[in-house]
């Protein structure tokens, strides 16, 4: 089954072709305006990002700091729902449209809206609209494996897990052996948008993980917001994830293709 | 003494932290090491005789336990049954909340933690946490919704006087749910030296089980006291209010496996179940995940958590503990929705008949008595979880 996935999934395809300086950018669906999801997605693709992480807004995002929380609230106030997100993404991969989305897409969010949607229906929709993977920080590995992994695999949807500086080595090995796509390395013990710079402690953690020779590629997230932090992350991993900084940029500079290109260029000069 | 840890029942939490379909630990990886450390150690620590000796000594000398089991004669006559009040309102700090914070501060010390973070809604759990932190000399940070800070200013002042830092939760709806989110975020940002004292039987496993066991002193005492007064350890009914459900969990705990004892939970219907201003979780909620456990919660069709309403800030929570969700689903627990009006009326009734002003939360349990069809021979224990001083400004609006 794993072999089958490796040949089918855009995330695995990407890492098979490219293993350095990958940039994954997060944005919240339906933010700043309800209809902006497709615009921002295409803007990021045109700007050359390697992966896109679309946030499914949630009322109680406990792993997120103020910036992403507020973007979630604003998206919900705009009327964003999971059902609507799938409608917005429907057809985005269609080559006949002239401007198909080819960049790998992950949905990032919390488990409760997915449970209400129905896990199988969710996976089916992901498959249908061309979502390649999900990041659900409050779905723990053991529950994923015992209750949901079979369904996600059936539809070819990868589930990406987080590790932190406090994650035990045995647990990192377990995550590495049980998942594919990539491992999301949280740079320090923190919520999103609250990390300032990259410290020596963080470098020591990056080196420790680098030396583990994991089978999965690694992307570093949390605290990546400028060329320096991006380059540092790339020394120790296959690339990095930017979230809060891009949300702030969208808020201040808007969603035009030029604005998004300018942001991406400031990160990956 | 061993009662804290023994009691293998069908309502016992499973190894993975589930009560039937509810419970578990739905937490981000950032919290995993902390929660796992607690899970691996809590049973062993609670079973340690030295821990138990210290816990019970503080409950006796500091909290003032055992709390009385009081035969409310005039109320009994009015209701038409034999009604006992378990007087948790006489605990130090004015409510049952301190039973849990005493247990958890001792737990935090044994885990080598230097700092405590907590959430609070009405401020009762915040005060109980600030109290034990002062007692043990640990730093204390309490998150409280900024709206609640305005509504419950006396408790904010109490916490500050006790040396706690009270931080306004300004996210979301700025009430208990958001204070809980902020406390969890604080814990994520400070994983090594901080212990999170959750105030109810909610949160990721092992919190619901640990808090229920600390609160189980309520029913442990009730059994002894009832034997003394009635010649039997088991009443016909135990009645308690449920927000998150910690006083109810404690009052039910040693009766969970005795089907002859009817367990009655009073939820806050607010202005009425159908009004959109309610906190009656089992009446309005659906299964889902909130604050780290699978439980029943009030939410939209899209899975967004909805904002509850109750006149009582302690019941103003969109979920219930997973044990209660299991009691509800299995039919072991009988859930009643009590409106603001019914609760206030019951609060006035107890004040006038027995000279006891109950907390608005506890008044919901008292109001549920009116909904039960009881006979004169029925023996009923009502958990009077807290005293009403904090609610005077609300009660006085209803005077005359």
TrEMBL record, chain A:
Q: Which family does it belong to?
A: Belongs to the TrpA family.
- Gene label: trpA
Q: What sections of the sequence does the record tag as coiled-coil?
A: none
So what does this one do? The alpha subunit is responsible for the aldol cleavage of indoleglycerol phosphate to indole and glyceraldehyde 3-phosphate.
Q: Does the keyword Signal apply?
A: no
List, alphabetically, the NCBIfam families matched: trpA
Q: Which reaction does it catalyse?
A: (1S,2R)-1-C-(indol-3-yl)glycerol 3-phosphate + L-serine = D-glyceraldehyde 3-phosphate + L-tryptophan + H2O
* Highest taxon above the source species: Bacteria
Q: Which residues cross the membrane?
A: none
Q: Name one GO molecular function term.
A: tryptophan synthase activity
SUPFAM superfamilies in UniProt: Ribulose-phoshate binding barrel
Known InterPro entries for this protein? Answer: Aldolase_TIM, RibuloseP-bd_barrel, Trp_synthase_alpha_AS, Trp_synthase_suA
User: Partners and quaternary state?
Assistant: Tetramer of two alpha and two beta chains.
**UniProtKB keywords:** Amino-acid biosynthesis, Aromatic amino acid biosynthesis, Lyase, Tryptophan biosynthesis
Pathway this chain belongs to? Amino-acid biosynthesis; L-tryptophan biosynthesis; L-tryptophan from chorismate: step 5/5
Q: What is this protein called?
A: Tryptophan synthase alpha chain
Query: What EC number(s) is this enzyme filed under?
Result: 4.2.1.20
Protein's UniProt keywords contain Calcium: no
GO cellular component terms given for this protein: cytosol
Q: Where is the active site?
A: 53 (proton acceptor), 64 (proton acceptor)
UniProtKB/TrEMBL annotation, chain B:
Identify residues that carry N6-(pyridoxal phosphate)lysine.
97
* Keyword flag Amino-acid biosynthesis: yes
Q: Which InterPro entries match?
A: Trp_synth_b_CS, Trp_synth_beta, Trp_synth_beta/beta-like, TrpB-like_PALP, TrpB-like_PALP_sf
Q: Which GO terms describe its cellular component?
A: cytoplasm
Question: Keywords assigned by UniProt?
Answer: Amino-acid biosynthesis, Aromatic amino acid biosynthesis, Lyase, Pyridoxal phosphate, Tryptophan biosynthesis
GO MF assignments? tryptophan synthase activity
Q: What does this protein do?
A: The beta subunit is responsible for the synthesis of L-tryptophan from indole and L-serine.
What is the protein name for this chain? Tryptophan synthase beta chain
Gene name of this polypeptide: trpB
């Amino acid at each position: 089954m794993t072999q089958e996935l490796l040949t089918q999934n855009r995330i695995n395809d990407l890492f098979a072709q490219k293993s350095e300086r990958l940039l994954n950018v997060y944005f919240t669906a339906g933010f700043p305006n309800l209809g902006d999801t497709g615009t921002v997605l295409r803007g990021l693709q045109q700007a050359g990002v390697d992966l896109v992480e679309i946030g499914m807004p949630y009322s109680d995002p406990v792993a997120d700091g103020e910036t992403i929380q507020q973007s979630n609230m604003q998206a919900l106030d705009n009327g964003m729902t999971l059902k609507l997100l799938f409608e917005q993404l429907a057809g985005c991969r269609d080559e006949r449209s002239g401007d198909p989305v080819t960049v790998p897409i992950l949905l990032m969010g919390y488990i409760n809206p997915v449970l209400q949607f129905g896990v199988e229906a969710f996976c089916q929709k992901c498959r249908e609209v061309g979502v390649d993977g999900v990041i659900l920080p409050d779905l723990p590995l053991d529950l994923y494996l015992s209750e949901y992994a079979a369904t996600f695999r059936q539809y070819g949807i990868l589930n990406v897990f987080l590790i932190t500086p406090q994650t035990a080595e045995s647990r990192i090995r377990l995550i590495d052996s049980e998942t594919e796509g990539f491992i999301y390395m949280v740079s320090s013990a923190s919520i999103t948008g609250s990390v300032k710079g990259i410290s020596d402690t963080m470098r020591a953690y990056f080196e420790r993980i680098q030396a583990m020779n994991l089978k999965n590629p690694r992307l570093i997230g949390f605290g990546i917001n400028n060329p320096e932090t991006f380059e540092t992350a790339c020394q120790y991993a296959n690339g990095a994830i930017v979230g809060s900084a891009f949300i702030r940029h969208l808020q201040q500079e808007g969603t035009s293709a030029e604005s998004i290109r300018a942001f991406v260029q400031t990160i990956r000069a | 003494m061993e009662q804290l840890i023994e009691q293998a029942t069908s309502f016992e939490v499973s190894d993975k932290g589930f009560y039937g379909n509810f419970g578990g630990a739905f937490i981000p990886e950032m919290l995993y090491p902390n929660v796992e450390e607690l899970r691996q150690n809590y049973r062993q620590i609670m079973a340690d005789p030295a821990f138990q000796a210290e816990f019970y000594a503080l409950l006796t000398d500091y909290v003032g336990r055992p709390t009385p089991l009081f035969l409310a004669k005039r109320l009994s006559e009015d209701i038409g049954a034999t009604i006992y009040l378990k007087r948790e309102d006489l605990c130090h700090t004015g409510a049952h909340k301190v039973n849990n914070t005493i247990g958890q501060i001792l737990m935090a010390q044994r885990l080598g933690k230097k700092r405590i973070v907590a959430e609070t809604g009405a401020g009762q759990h915040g005060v109980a946490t600030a109290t034990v932190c002062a007692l043990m000399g640990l730093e204390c940070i309490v998150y409280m919704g900024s709206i609640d800070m305005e509504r419950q200013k006396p408790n904010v002042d109490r916490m500050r006087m006790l040396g706690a830092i009270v931080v306004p939760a300004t996210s979301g709806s700025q009430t208990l749910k958001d204070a809980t989110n902020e406390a969890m975020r604080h814990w994520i940002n400070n994983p090594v030296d901080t212990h999170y004292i959750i105030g109810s039987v909610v949160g990721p496993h092992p919190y619901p089980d640990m808090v229920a066991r600390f609160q189980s002193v309520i029913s442990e005492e009730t059994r002894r006291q009832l034997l003394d007064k009635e010649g039997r350890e088991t009443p016909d009914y135990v009645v308690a209010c449920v927000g998150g459900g910690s006083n109810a969990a404690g009052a039910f705990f040693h009766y969970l496996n005795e089907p002859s004892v009817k367990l009655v939970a009073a939820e806050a219907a607010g202005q009425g179940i159908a009004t959109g201003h309610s906190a009656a979780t089992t009446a309005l909620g659906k299964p889902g995940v909130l604050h780290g456990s699978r439980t029943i919660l009030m939410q939209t069709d899209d899975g967004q958590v909805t904002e509850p309403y109750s006149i009582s800030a302690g019941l103003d929570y969109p979920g219930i503990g997973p044990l209660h969700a299991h009691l509800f689903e299995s039919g072991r627990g009988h859930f009643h929705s009590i409106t603001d009006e019914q609760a206030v009326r019951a609060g006035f009734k107890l004040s006038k008949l027995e000279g006891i002003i109950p907390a608005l939360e506890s008044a919901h349990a008292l109001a549920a008595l009116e909904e039960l069809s009881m006979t004169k021979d029925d023996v009923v224990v009502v958990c009077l979880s807290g005293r009403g001083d904090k609610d005077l400004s609300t009660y006085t609006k209803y005077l005359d």
